[in-house]
Amino acid sequence: MAKQEDVFKKVISHAKEYGFIFPSSEIYDGLSAVYDYGQNGAELKNNLKQYWWKAMVQLNENIVGLDSAILMHPTIWKASGHVDAFNDPLIDNKDSKKRFRADVLVEDFCAKLEDKAQKEIDKAAKRFGDAFDKNEFETTNTRVVEYRARQKTILERLAKSLTEENLADVKSLIEELEIADPDTGSKNWTDVRQFNLMFGTKLGASADSATDLYLRPETAQGIFVNFANVQKTSRHKLPFGIAQIGKAFRNEIVARQFIFRMREFEQMEMQYFVPPGTELEFYEAWKEKRMNWHLALGLGEENYKFHDHEKLAHYANAAADIEFKFPFGFKELEGIHSRTDFDLSAHEKHSGRKLQYFDPERNENYVPYVVETSIGLDRLFLAVFSTSLKEEVLEDGTERTVLSLPPALAPVKAAILPLMKKDGMPELAEKIFNDLKYDFNIIMEDKDSIGKRYRRQDAIGTPFCITIDQDSVQDFTVTIRDRDTMKQERVPMENLRKIIDEKVSFRSLLRKV
Fold first, then answer.
1. pLDDT, tens digit, for every residue of 42-77?
2. pLDDT at 134
3. What are the C-alpha distances in Å from 200 to residues 26, 78, 250?
4. DSSP designation for 67
5. What span, in angstroms and rounded, lies between the C-alpha atoms of 299 and 308?
6. Is 261 annotated as contributing to ligand binding?
7. Does 264 show up as a binding residue in the annotation?
8. What is the pLDDT of residues 443-501, one digit of tens each?
9. Which site among 69, 232, 390, 510 is 20 to 30 Å from 209 CA-CA?
10. Is pLDDT at 373 greater than 70 in this prediction?
11. Domain limits of the chain?
12. DSSP SS3 for 315
């Protein structure tokens, strides 16, 4: 655990030191669980958006984009169930005075059981080598079976208690499992109670006439209320999807783990509208598609797993999470949900407007069913950033810190480094910069030794460094250095665009999806 905490601290420190993420309002001592993205963070974040948007919208002829407003009619949130049911079960520790999500305490307990099971599996794999049969071991080893059976029993009970809103049993479960405050070890708990997560605001010129509104807690409802508009104007037949990237706001009382859980965050969601009765088929298909999208990033297949929900939301008939191995363990990265026809039917009822589709093949009108994919952009940022941050020992015994981002996602694609500030080198660097800037985000840097400049670019994940020396001025060749291999090659200036493009283009990622 100490090692995981150390890794996480390095991630947070590196993110600030190299201009990726800053605490919001830091000169005023910050604002809890709110962060700003710096110059490099904004570039990486935008590249992640592009990767998602291109894979979701550009590569699918039956998926279109939308950008709905943050402020929406208040009845929308009544229809969607957020006013009545958008709650988290919270529990306080009487001794430490700290507040926790009760369900997360239990889930973290179960995660420890899974860690114990995994240790047994890893030991056996090491012992038996190539002869190891993982599936057989998982189903026959007594300890692994017991750990996972206990985990299943606990999660099923938690799901049942939350579904029935039996908060007393949730507290009883925490006490029976002897779960302690992770910081102090105290087991002195209050009762569990529900807390609504929506931020309220007002619309109007005066307090007397102002309308009560909410900052949207999710982006999905903006898609649902625009279903008819988009379908009619795009003329798409079912199945088709509507994708959106946008800000959402939740008054998280227990916001922690850096940008993993924040009060202001961004979602990338796609709602896929399908005929009733076909939703589970599309649900399974989208689970596979979304996992392939993640694996194309090359962060390691072992860092992903599916988690099927024991407790389904009020709108769902199937739900699963893609979990990622963050520095603090496996946690939800993306959700795939079969939402049935709940949302469109609810908005039809509350608005009095028809939100139906005429199916020419079935010759009937019906309310479509929906399969949703929803990923937190900030969580994706953290997954990519934390996994890419590495410390390497080189052949000469020295060390370097490198952010080995997928090249298409790197904030800066190439750094142009004139060896000296004289003899025509700065002018040639400027010429190369002006030639390449229309195609790539590049920078010029002439401070410090070339070695220090290389290390600085490694630390922000720049795939290429282009060094201009005295020979460059004479023969128009430059030295290009690869971030990952650190190999240097002498190439003609005229080849730079092609060399860089082959490695950093989104094509290289999208072809793997």
1. 999 999 999 999 999 999 999 999 999 999 998 998
2. 87
3. 25, 13, 10
4. -
5. 22
6. yes
7. yes
8. 999 898 999 999 999 999 999 999 999 999 999 999 999 999 999 999 999 999 999 99
9. 69
10. yes
11. 1-72+212-393, 396-510
12. coil
Q: Which helix (H) or strand (E) holds 16?
A: helix 2-17
pTM value?
A: 0.83
* Residue 101 labeled ligand binder: yes
Mention every residue, 6+ apart, whose C-beta is less than 8 A from residue 417. Answer: 429, 444, 445, 446, 450, 453, 465, 466, 467, 468
Confirm whether residue 310 is marked as ligand binding: no
DSSP H helices in 272-326: 279-295
**What CATH number matches the domain at 396-510, 3.30.413.10, 3.40.50.800, 3.40.50.150, 3.30.1360.70?**
3.40.50.800
Rounded CA gap, 400 and 485, in Å?
12
Say whether 380 counts as a known binding-site residue: no
- Which DSSP symbol is given to 205? S
The answer to the question of whether 372 is labelled as a binding residue is: yes
99 is in an annotated binding site: no
- pLDDT tens per residue, range 148-185: 999 999 998 998 898 888 999 999 999 999 999 988 89
Q: CA–CA separation, 301 vs 295, rounded Å?
A: 6
Residue 376 annotated as binding?
A: yes
The C-alpha atoms of residue 379 and residue 45 are separated, in whole angstroms, by 11
250 annotated ligand binder: yes
pLDDT tops 80 at residue 297: yes
262 labelled ligand-binding:
yes
Nearest-angstrom CA–CA distance, 294 and 283: 17
Q: Is 218 assigned a ligand-binding role in the annotation?
A: yes
Question: Three-class SS of residue 93?
Answer: strand
Does CATH number 3.90.226.10 belong to domain 1-72+212-393? no
> Percentage of the chain with pLDDT > 90?
71
As a whole number of angstroms, the distance between CA 14 and CA 17 comes to 5
Q: 400 a known binding residue? A: no
Task: Establish whether domains 1-72+212-393 and 396-510 are of one fold.
Answer: no
- How far apart CA 296 and CA 59 sit, in angstroms, is 15
* 332 in a labelled binding site: yes
Write out the two tokens for 437.
């800037």
260 marked as binding residue? yes
Distance, CA of 269 to CA of 372 (rounded, Å): 7
User: H helices within 399-449, ranges in order?
Assistant: 425-436
Q: Is 96 annotated as a binding residue?
A: no
Write out pLDDT tens, residues 205-248. Answer: 776 667 889 899 999 999 999 999 999 999 999 999 999 999 99
Residue 437, SS3 per DSSP: coil
Cβ pair 249, 263 in contact under 8 A = yes
Q: Is 72 among the annotated ligand-binding positions? A: no
Binding residue per annotation — 377?
Answer: yes
> Could you check whether the bond before residue 89 is cis, i.e. omega within 30 degrees of 0?
no
Residue 188 is labelled as binding a ligand: no
User: Average pLDDT of 377-405?
Assistant: 93
**Residue 86 assigned to a binding site:** no
Residue 495 CA to residue 477 CA, distance in Å, equals 9
**Are the beta carbons of 51 and 247 closer than 8 angstroms?**
no
Has 277 been labeled as part of a binding site? no
